Amino acid sequence: MKISGLIVAKNEWPLLAVTISHALTHHCDEVWLIDNASTDGTQAGIAYLNEHVWSGRIHYVHYSERFDQAAITSFGMRLAWKNGAEFILILDGDEFLITKNHVKFAGFLASRTNDPDFLNALGVQVITQNFAVPFNFQVGDLDQYLEIDTLTIPNQENVYNPVEELARKINSDEINFFDNHPWNFRAIPRADNRLFVTAGTHQLTPLLPVYYTHPDEICLAHIPLSSPKKIKSLAALPEGGVQLLVAQASENSNALDSLWRKVTMPVDGSQPNFTFQKVDWLINTLRPVVAILNPHWNVLVGDLSGLELPELGDESSFHAGVLACRAAIEFILAHP
User: Fold this and answer.
1) Domain region containing 325
2) Residue 46 and residue 54: Cα distance in Å, rounded?
3) Which of 55, 74, 317, 330 is the most buried (most CB within 10 A)?
4) How far apart are the C-alpha atoms of 322 and 204, rounded to whole Å?
5) Distances from the Cα of 82 to the Cαs of 78, 85, 87, 206, in angstroms?
6) pLDDT recorded at residue 260
7) For the chain, what is the domain count?
8) How far is CA 232 from the centre of its chain?
9) 295 and 17 in contact (C-beta within 8 Å)?
10) How many CB atoms lie within 10 A of CB 295?
11) Angle at the Cα of 179 (from 149 to 184), degrees rounded to 5?
12) In this predicted structure, what is the pLDDT of residue 170?
């Protein structure tokens, strides 16, 4: 069974190197990266990672047109399916798939082949578990990834508020950032040309049978805010969910430093303003990834300007595919 990873990212380097390597270490035969015009060294970093670490298992696609998550991801799914993928593990650049006892995703799927609900489903749904990093966390310090052990515990009463109301409450300190989680389930689609995804990959479009999972068996570990720079990049996006609205409000009020303190784990022994649990299961899956990347890390976070870059391919053809997916999604949403 071929499992392909699919990531759409913009300016996530070097965290992206860890995310991709985690997927290839534990779950995926290959990873498709759609780079939405990054300016932070992603292209050169991927070229090095692909040649020196992952032996050509990363497929790089450069895309410079307007960001449209649902359409870009849906067309990326088709590229992976054309290359033989049976399931697409769709990740953000800050997410890690975790399974009970660290079995591979293919093994998890194989254990469900006697379940008619799984056999009839056109995708698997997994829930997101959110982690807070230490206050002094640096995405360029590889060893610090082995310190990410703070699982945030949401206040369930706030989960179903409208996004705008959640952002207002967070920015006014009525609730904390992590109270609006766990976020929606995320879809891992089976190969089927009828399928598209919604923005955020929360659902398959059209709404087709999916196999729901329990977070004790499988989940996505998510690091929603990994640095003040990430908060500023979120604030610059044209559209998005509660993360965007909170980041924009904080930037407009010059409160980015304050927000960073609110969403990170203090290193002086004091308690954060969110409920949390210390766990080791994300760290345990990151240990082999850190070991693989460690000999190459100085290059990956250093000057990559002299590296030969991957070929960009026919971006106009890719754009046409994205537009076709957008049209299909809009038609499906208009004709439920």
Assistant:
1) 3-334
2) 10
3) 74
4) 17
5) 6, 7, 12, 21
6) 85
7) 1
8) 18
9) no
10) 10
11) 85
12) 76
**Inter-residue contact 125 to 195 (CB < 8 Å):** no
CA atoms within 13 A on the CB side of 203: 8
Question: What's the token pair of residue 215?
Answer: 């977070």
Q: State the Cα–Cα distance between residues 176 and 242, nearest whole angstrom.
A: 12
Element (H, E) at 50: helix 42-52
pLDDT confidence of residue 95: 95
Low-confidence residues of the chain: pLDDT under 70: 156-161, 163, 180-184, 235-254
Report the candidate in 132, 169, 142 with the shortest Cα–Cα distance to residue 265.
132
Backbone angles phi, psi at 27, to 5 degrees: -135, -35
Smallest CA-to-CA distance from 329 within 66, 79, 125, 74 is with: 74
pTM: 0.93
Count of Cβ atoms closer than 10 Å to residue 167 Cβ:
22
Instruction: Please confirm whether the linkage preceding 182 is cis (ω < 30° from 0).
Output: yes
Helix (H, G, I), strand (E, B) or coil at 131: strand
CA dihedral 94, 98, 103, 106 (to 10 degrees): -60
- The token pair at 30 is 């290959």
